[in-house]
């Protein structure tokens, strides 16, 4: 595979350079915004850096199977698993062959929309594509979604009204999310634990879920906290437990955890609050994984804050990639207007969003979430510019 880096003032300019130098079969492997030029560190300009590749053995359109069409493209795996310097080794392993298939699918989408003109897509679709990027949807995912919507328009994309275009993209998002379950607590596991970095509102979220489980669903609920790293967190959960009249055990080691489980054996539902610490702390991650290895069936939720930077959310997700996560819980929905990270993480892990929270009131400020609600948040402010 031939791989080359392009730097341009804008994505359309980069695409024109890629088409001119590498031809219409080139595919985008990675793109990001950089600061370039300047004098003595000042007056740097924002530019687009694009890494493009050219497959010497392109797949033909009629070779794609329905199963291939349905699989979500995860071109970003390349940047996680391979550096540009060893891209020429891609064809040497079965995993690389899978990645090449995904690259070829991206190429097919690029053939649909073409690389001519100043935009990747015709006007209405380009507006929505830019909106998804502004919502912090990963670039490759935004491209894939819009390109698939264009392809399914079956040659009528240019004649669609703006509202019809929005509907087409929304339909495609829902289609690609259709195999990812969005649901709250399943109640199939007696033990449910919550993991996540410090400061995301994990303890308050647990109190909200405990209250709903007890008051709305009629479950007999008990609480266990392992967050002895922060005294304030223990006291906060003790206060909630007292208000809700729910028993709470504070544990300091796995042996204490076993005793707490035995004590609560008659309860329907045991919620476990794990330590909230810096997710880059290796000791913390070891403790999370150690609890996973205990001989108990449990459901695990990763709690994240929507007020965090998109790059930080991706880094946290990677840190927890070896932990079996049942669903995401996003807090602080009311503190942001960018929701694309929820979509990107759902696609990356193929894991649904179970709950969102917006506010501190217990138990009111928490809701089960759906793919339809996610689409509504992503597209509610899109406008025909």
Main-sheet strand order equals 6-5-7-4-8-9-10-11
Beta-strand residue fraction: 15-25%
SSE succession: EHEEHHHHHHEHEHEHEHEHEHEEH
Number of helices: 14
Number of strands: 11
Overall 3D form: elongated
State the major sheet. Answer: 8 strands, mixed
Radius of gyration: 24 Å
Q: How many angstroms does the end-to-end distance come to?
A: 39 Å
| Share in helix | 40-55%
Mean pLDDT score, rounded? Answer: 78
Q: Provide the low-confidence segments as ranges.
A: 59-93, 111-118
Instruction: Look at the helices and sheets and give the structural class.
Output: alpha/beta
Give descriptors for this structure.
385 residues, alpha/beta, eight-stranded mixed sheet, three-stranded antiparallel sheet, 14 helices, elongated
């Amino acid at each position: 595979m031939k791989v080359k880096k392009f730097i341009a003032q804008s994505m359309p300019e980069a695409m024109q350079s890629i088409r001119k130098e590498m031809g219409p079969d080139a595919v985008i492997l990675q793109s990001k915004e950089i600061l370039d030029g300047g004098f003595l560190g000042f007056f740097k300009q924002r530019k687009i850096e694009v890494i493009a590749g050219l497959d010497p053995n392109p797949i033909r359109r009629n070779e794609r199977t329905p199963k291939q069409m349905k699989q979500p493209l995860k071109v970003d795996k390349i940047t996680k698993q391979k550096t540009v310097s060893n891209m020429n080794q891609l064809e040497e392993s079965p995993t690389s062959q899978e990645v090449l298939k995904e690259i070829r699918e991206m190429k097919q989408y690029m053939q649909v929309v073409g690389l001519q003109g100043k935009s990747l897509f015709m006007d209405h679709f380009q507006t929505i594509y830019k909106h998804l990027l502004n919502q912090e949807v990963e670039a490759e995912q935004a491209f894939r979604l819009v390109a698939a919507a264009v392809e399914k328009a079956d040659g009528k994309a240019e004649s669609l009204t703006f509202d019809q275009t929005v509907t087409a993209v929304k339909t495609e998002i829902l289609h690609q999310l259709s195999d990812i379950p969005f649901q709250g607590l399943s109640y199939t596991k007696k033990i449910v634990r919550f993991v996540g970095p410090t400061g995301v509102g994990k303890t308050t979220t647990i109190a909200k879920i405990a209250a709903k489980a007890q008051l709305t669903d009629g479950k007999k609920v008990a609480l266990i906290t392992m967050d002895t790293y922060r005294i304030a967190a223990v006291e906060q959960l003790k206060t909630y437990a007292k208000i809700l009249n729910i028993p709470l055990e504070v544990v300091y080691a796995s042996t204490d955890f076993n005793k707490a489980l035995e004590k609560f054996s008659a309860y329907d539902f045991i919620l476990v609050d794990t330590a909230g610490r810096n997710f880059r702390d290796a000791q913390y991650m070891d403790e999370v994984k150690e609890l996973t290895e205990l001989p108990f069936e449990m459901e695990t939720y990763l709690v994240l804050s929507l007020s965090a930077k998109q790059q930080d959310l991706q880094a946290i997700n990677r840190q927890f990639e070896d932990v079996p996560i049942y669903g995401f819980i996003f807090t602080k929905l009311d503190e942001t207007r960018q929701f694309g990270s929820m979509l990107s993480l759902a696609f990356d892990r193929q894991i649904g969003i179970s709950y969102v929270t917006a506010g501190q009131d217990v138990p009111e400020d928490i809701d089960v979430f759906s793919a339809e609600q996610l689409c509504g948040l992503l597209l509610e402010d899109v406008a025909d510019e």
